[in-house]
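Long-time lurker, first post. I've been practising inverse folding by hand and with some scripts of my own, and I keep getting stuck on stretches where the structure tokens seem ambiguous. Below is the full token string for one chain I'm working on. Before anyone asks, I'm not after the true native sequence, just a reasonable design that respects the backbone. If someone could post their per-position residues I'd love to compare against what I wrote down in my notebook.
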């Protein structure tokens, strides 16, 4: 049985954990698969906040970007 693989691409990048998870929930509510990659180092989070990256399947990137850009306060 052949398994299909998902090609994940970056849809949005932020240093705010709350923004990342709000957007992730919004994408899920609209049927867009997503994963949040946390590239923050907890040891240096205060001085050097890292990035959180929302990844989506390449086939859903256009829809994800439209939703993100249409949401208040999350313009890229």
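-- Answer (accepted) --
I ran through it position by position. Result:
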């Amino acid at each position: 049985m052949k398994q299909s693989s998902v090609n994940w691409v970056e849809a949005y990048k932020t240093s705010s954990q709350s923004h990342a998870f709000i957007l992730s929930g919004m994408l899920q509510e609209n049927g867009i698969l997503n994963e949040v990659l946390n590239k923050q180092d907890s040891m240096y989070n205060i001085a050097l906040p890292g990035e959180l990256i929302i990844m989506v399947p390449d086939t859903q990137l256009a829809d994800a970007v439209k939703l993100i850009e249409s949401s208040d306060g999350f313009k890229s």
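A couple of notes from the structure itself: The chain has one domain: 8-67. The longest strand covers residues 8-14. Happy to go over any region you disagree with.
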